[in-house]
Amino acid sequence: MIDLHTHTNVSDGTDSPFELINKAMSQGITTLAITDHDSIDGWQEAERALRPGLQLVKGAEISTLTTDGISVHMLGLLFDGGNEAMITMLNDTKDQRIPRMKKMIELLNRDGITISMDDVMAAAPEGATVGRPHLADALVATGLLKSRDEAFQGLLNNDSKYYVEHVAPTPEEAIRIIKEAGGVSVIAHPFASRRGQIVSVDTFATLVQAGLNGVEVDHRDHNAQERADLLHVTRELNLVATGSSDYHGTGKLNSLGENLTNPAEWERLESMARERRVISK
Is the same domain home to 177 and 77? Predict the structure, then answer.
């Protein structure tokens, strides 16, 4: 069982890296990627928690923006965590999250929705990469909304008046840096229309030219037709097709291992990295 997209409380998940590793072991996951938003801070704890029977894939989910302003999340896997350009990209993207959050709070306050930066920080674990899920949690904690899902379907949707874009690399830039760091890139949930704007099929051509390796096909936010369309894209462009849970703990409905990657597809994807960086004990 191979799950290539999960989050811990280093970003916007609710499980610590240690807890996530234990949960994956107990549920029969054999290969697990930890891909926190714009952060690799959970890698060391995850590796310390590792036990025989589970392989760890170190990665990150990188926030990017297309030139026409569409938010795209790029999974970087198996890259060198000490690569200077990679560290700079992750840190720069993370640093932009605080001013972006303050602007979203300001917009909410203007319409009489009372929430503060202190509320958001109280909802985020110490040291976490602050993001919209923490704002959603703050809105729930203050009684303004009932759940994260309600927040993302309404106030915090990409098409909402309260959504604020952030300074981020383009998908092509992120792919290039991941590749230069020896890793592989997989575009996350590209057709998840319930999240807001999505990339077009035409976008994939430029991403392939930049070095894209795979597409997350099987994901909770893709319906049957979207999955079929994406599978067609991967076959046409000779890309790897992955499936992942995008697990966040109790923060979202996604269950660990609810979507999985075919072992043959994972073997192909791993072979595209510069060197073998899968961790096992």
Answer: yes
Let me know whether 34 and 77 are in one domain.
yes
Q: 233 near 204, Cβ under 8 Å?
A: yes
Distance CA 210, CA 67 (A): 15
Sign of CA dihedral 61, 106, 99, 44: negative
Alpha-carbon Rg for the chain in angstroms: 18
**How many alpha carbons lie under 13 Å from residue 252 in its C-beta half-sphere?**
22
How confident is the model over 5-17, as pLDDT tens digits? 999 999 989 999 9
Asked whether the whole model's pTM tops 0.90, one would answer: no
Residue 232, domain member (yes or no): yes
Domain identity same for 191 and 74:
yes
Are 73 and 189 members of one domain? Answer: yes
